[in-house]
Amino acid sequence: MNAPERFTLNLSRFIRAPREKVFDAFTTDAGMASWMGPRGMHVSRARADTRIGGDWQVQMVARDGSCHDVGGQFRLLERPHRLAYTWHWQGDDKHPMSGLSTLVEVELLEQIGGTEVRMIHSGFPTAAVRDSHNQGWASTLNRLSDALDPQGSAGTITLLGDARSSYTRTARMALAEKAVAYTLQSCAPHTAEIEAVHPFGLIPGLRDGAITLYETAAIVQYLDECFDTGVTLRPGSISARARCTQWISMVNSHLYDTMVRRYLLQLFFPSGDDGKPDRAVIDKALAEMPAQLAALDKAYAGQDYLAGPGLSAADLFVAPILAHVLAMPEGGALMAQYPNVMRAHAIVRARPSFAATQA
Ligand SMILES: N[C@@H](CCC(=O)N[C@@H](CS)C(=O)NCC(=O)O)C(=O)O
Predict the structure, then answer these.
(1) I need a labelling partner for 89 at 20 to 30 A (CA). Which of 24, 196, 303, 332 fits?
(2) Minimum CA distance residue for ligand 1 atom 16
(3) What tens digit of pLDDT does each residue of 269-278 get?
(4) Of the given ranges (46-60, 126-140, 224-238, 261-275), which has the lowest mean pLDDT?
(5) pLDDT tens figures, 8-37
(6) 3-state secondary structure the chain
(7) Of 159, 202, 214, 317, which is best to mutate to test ligand 1, by the most ligand atoms within 8 angstroms of its C-beta?
């Protein structure tokens, strides 16, 4: 009888750290505890009996508290350039890899400024299981980089955008609020860099190693769930979470279009005759603003934030837009008529994340 077909995953990743450090991250208790598991998970225990035939064991814990145990045996240990170990998920009989031992082979190549990690993970029972491990490894290798790169998460997290753009500022404020180190790659809409991430070339876009994302709401959600820094931008209660989504949707469907695209951008990038602002476009936008500001004013009545008692992602979507409006003579005069908006906006403006993201 023919042996069942097995599927193999080939991965490679540059890590800004010497080979010895990378090797130790794969083979010591403390090293494994620092990165084994995708973003959003942490390792509750890691144990490595680092000799040929020695066992290793890691328990990953997800945000919902569910535990995922994996372990195996070291098959090859040639510090600092090669190692191999078996990989076996434990504890879940329904797991497609239950009872199946796969093999991870790692080669560490010295490169200028760091180490190239080449991995072959073989023995998957189906292409789908291989592909889900591909996603898991992409995120897990980001954590390996976070742990070893002197820049921390700024080695993998790159935000592509323009500091003047309100959506870019929302994502940057989220990163600042969560104290996540990142790299800002300055880029304008519709450039080749952003078109490689966003199908319509809009900013911002996010790269986290091999993972790319676009749409600010998705980027903020990803950052919030990946990094457990003690700050969350997602409200705790069901109704507050829905309220947060409601305001993000209001920004995407109405506020940005009126206050930024048809007002602010018409002033700075005029589309009227002789290169002048099209006054009809501006007047129409200004005429729509009172209803939007009134809705915000009502939402801020008796509270400082839009969705619950604390800051949430919703406030980070609204604040950069209001900051633009307030800076303009007509917009500022209009906004001044809404005391709750002014009060709540002043509170967000006082946060370090606002100052840190000033264009
Ligand atoms: N819904 C998108 C909107 C992004 C967006 O409109 N970004 C603006 C800059 S703030 C842009 O790239 N505009 C260029 C264009 O519309 O051509 C998101 O949430 O990220």
Answers:
(1) 24
(2) 202
(3) 988 888 899 9
(4) 261-275
(5) 999 999 999 999 999 999 999 999 999 999
(6) CCCCCCEEEEEEEEECCCHHHHHHHHHCHHHHHCCCCCCCCEEEEEEECCCCCCEEEEEEECCCCCEEEEEEEEEEEECCCEEEEEEEEECCCCCCCCCCCEEEEEEEEEECCEEEEEEEEEEECCHHHHHHHHHHHHHHHHHHHHHHCCCHHHHCEEEEECCCCHHHHHHHHHHHHCCCCCEEEECCCCCHHHHCCCCCCCCCEEEECCEEEECHHHHHHHHHHHCCCCCCCCCCCHHHHHHHHHHHHHHHHHHHHHHHHHHHHHHHCCCCHHHCCCHHHHHHHHHHHHHHHHHHHHHHCCCCCCCCCCCCHHHHHHHHHHHHHHCCHHHHHHHCCCHHHHHHHHHHHCCHHHHCCCC
(7) 202
